[in-house]
Amino acid sequence: MKQWLSPAKLNLFLYITGRRTDNYHNLQTLFQFINYCDQLTFNVRQDNQINLLTPFANIPAHKNLIIIAAEQLRTFTQRPDLGVDIAIDKKIPMGGGLGGASSNAATVLVALNQLWQLNLSTETLMDIGRKIGADVPIFIYGQASFAQGIGDQFQALDIHEYWYLVTCPNIEISTVNIFNDPQLPRNTPVQSLHDLLLLPFDKQRNDCEGIVRKHYPLIDKVIDYLSHYATTRLTGTGACVFTQCKTEQQAKEIQKHLDTLSIDSFIAKALNHSPLYTN
What are the tens digits of pLDDT across the range 197-218? Predict the structure, then answer.
């Protein structure tokens, strides 16, 4: 059996520049990984069974992206004989905007490409990943990136690796519901990467944040509260929010203030290179 990491990500900013005819949205976003990971374990089988050994509450195995990714890879390669048992130590909150399910799918594709000895290119794995979910390709790509299109056209960047306090209200938010909200901003002007990177962190934004704060008063309260200490923003469509800190100690000091709210949080270091490939 072999173990593989599946990291979370942050959207340091997220601008929605238009709605496409296929109902997806065009985005400009900045992805960076953090050193907070699920861990997947694989045991290759000598039959055609693909099994998820770890149960998920309210998600049947056949609808879990872990199984979907393995089946998609097997279908693409036309190798119905391939099999695997997969287990996961789940740490990344579900429905939190940290990309946990997409990251799990990406780790499955990368790991099984090696374990099944398929020798597919990263580009091919990303193409398979796009059919599974819009965030899957960034985890296969594995580098901090400015992303456009539906968030799957990447320009790799080497940016400062800050510390973050990531706060996780016990809320699961549907990405589909947020992107279908009629009041979601969809006409943010397209900007050059140069101009976007010139903006200080506190002048950037997430276009989904206003809608999420309107529908989820607890998230609105958390962002207001933490913003007294440092710039705080929603990641993806939430529910997790992140507070940028210059040091780990600053993150720990701010985290102490959360005790009064009784909300889960963790401290993580940003990473420009995914631990899927570096560990």
Answer: 999 999 999 999 999 999 999 9
Q: In this structure, what token pair is assigned to residue 120?
A: 């597919």
User: Domain map of the chain by residue range?
Assistant: 2-156, 163-271
Exposed e or buried b for every residue in 83-100, given b needs 16+ CB within 10 A? bbebbbeeebbebbbbbb
| CATH architecture of the region 163-271 | 2-Layer Sandwich (3.30)
Please tell me the distance from the alpha carbon of residue 187 to that of residue 152, in angstroms, as a whole number. Answer: 19
On the CB side of 191, CA atoms within 13 Å amount to: 19
pTM for the model = 0.96
User: What is 199-247 written as a DSSP string?
Assistant: S-GGG--BTTHHHHHHH-HHHHHHHHHHTTTS-EEE-TT-S-EEEEESS
Q: Could you report the per-residue pLDDT of 232-265, keeping only the tens digit for each? A: 999 999 999 999 999 999 999 999 999 888 899 9
Q: Choose the CATH number for 2-156 among 3.40.50.1950, 3.40.30.10, 3.30.230.10, 3.90.550.10.
A: 3.30.230.10
Amino acid at 147: A
Distance CA 105, CA 217 (A): 31
Dihedral sign (CA 59, 103, 41, 166): negative
Instruction: Give the 3-state secondary structure of residue 256.
Output: helix
* Contacts within 8 Å (CB) and 24+ apart, 157-162: 157/30, 157/272, 158/272, 159/30, 159/32, 159/272, 160/270, 161/32, 161/269, 161/270, 161/271, 161/272, 162/244, 162/245, 162/246, 162/269, 162/270
Rounded to whole angstroms, the Cα distance separating 30 from 193 reads 10
Would you call the peptide bond into 105 cis, given omega within 30 degrees of 0 as the criterion?
no
Alpha-carbon distance 185 to 180, whole Å?
A: 11
**What residues are annotated to the active site?**
9, 135
